[in-house]
Amino acid sequence: QVQLVESGGGLVQPGGSLRLSCQASGSINSIRAMGWYRQAPGKQRELVAGFTSTGNTNYADFVKGRFTISRDIAKNTVYLQMNSLKPEDTAVYYCNAVIKTTQLMTLPYWGQGTQVTVSS
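The structure assignment produced for this chain is given below.
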């Protein structure tokens, strides 16, 4: 029906940068909201950044101006530019979207996750 595919994770040194991508595909009528969460071992999943249904952006406090979320509506894709990465940013990053399907059902969807490791 609907799937989200993340890419762009990897291993970087502290202070480095990564750009994550998430593309939604399938029986999509419209995307209401879309963003990024992350989960580190032994920790709860937490919001990183996202677009609301009105197009506004929300950022977690720990981003501190380091991350920027953007989107390409035509491609059903959201990006997360991560700069000045810290070891504590190490986590699996998950794409999340609230999607209205072609059958007009509005539901949340999750990607499989992409690993981000920040280590020297």
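Interim note for the steering committee: The chain has a mean pLDDT of 97. The CA atoms of residues 38 and 93 lie 4 Å apart.
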